[in-house]
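Input record (one chain):
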Amino acid sequence: MVLGMAEDVRVVLIRLASRTQTLRWFAKHASAERGAYARETLEIYAPLANRLGVWQLKWELEDLSFRFLEPEVYKRIAGMLDERRVERGGRRRHPAQAEGENERAKSFFHDPETRAAPRVP
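The corresponding structure, as predicted from the sequence alone:
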């Protein structure tokens, strides 16, 4: 199959997108065949996406496949990540603080009197 697709890389990209969409569908609808699809994805499609440099698809393919093959481990890891996200959330700046910093940066880089950015020596 891979050799047949190798003539045109666009066909490979379409197959990767199709497999991603199929796994997304399986995430919403339970099916007995999703385990076979997940295993095939981990063995063939994820490494292919990695070789082509389509890392976002590779990560999503691996994530969805792992979710179907090892659901308990996946849920445990997802829970730990959520806990870390909450912990880090307390250290984030308030959006109003970030907005104030953006306004100061704009006023620094664009002087309202000259309507130009300052010159750097």
